[in-house]
Amino acid sequence: MAQEAILIIDDHALFRSGIVSMLATAFDSISIVDCASLHEALTIDAVVPTVVLLDIQLPGLSGLEGMGLLQQRWPAARIVVVSALDMPDTVGASLAQGACAFLSKTDRPDRMMSVLREMLEDPPATPSVGGAICPSLTPRQAEVLTLVGRGLSNKMIGRRLGLSEHTVRGHVQGLLSVLRVARRAEAVFKAQQLGLIR
């Protein structure tokens, strides 16, 4: 029977080995597996990843292009994008494609550890309201949505949650994509209709 693991997909060997070393120390009860490409990752049979740390810039199939394949192979895995491309458009696209979180390669190690613990401890939830399936939001997206609903700006949300304004903007863009709306006001209205916020 395949065992649970954290799967790291990144073509930079030095970065990968550093993350493997850090995670192996922090999570000694879970396997840490690393691959240099999506093709290599998709051939793995020995483990079932609980969390996938996915770089966007990969040889061959990029992280964004291959996210759907990872979701098909391991539907329960929580994908965390880890990239140096931390512009709002990239963050938003990652979250819209189904990533549960986005980490910049410039983030502090304790931020990565915090996000990983959250992913390992909290089962993914797809809330149901009135028999209709609601868009599935990550815990962070739900926090951002609540604060958007209170009328806070990206800067104020960033201060409240300890995030950069760029990261908040990415989360907001991800929310707009998930809710299939164009503006913040529409997102708030739709979220209220779906019972995601009050």
UniProtKB/TrEMBL annotation:
Coiled coil: none annotated. Gene3D superfamilies: 3.40.50.2300, Winged helix-like DNA-binding domain superfamily/Winged helix DNA-binding domain. InterPro entries: CheY-like_superfamily, EvgA-like, NreC/VraR/RcsB-like_REC, Sig_transdc_resp-reg_C-effctor, Sig_transdc_resp-reg_receiver, Tscrpt_reg_LuxR_C, WH-like_DNA-bd_sf. CDD domains: LuxR_C_like, REC_NarL-like. SUPFAM superfamilies: C-terminal effector domain of the bipartite response regulators (SSF46894), CheY-like (SSF52172). The keyword rRNA processing does not apply. GO terms for biological process: phosphorelay signal transduction system; regulation of DNA-templated transcription. This is Two component transcriptional regulator, LuxR family.
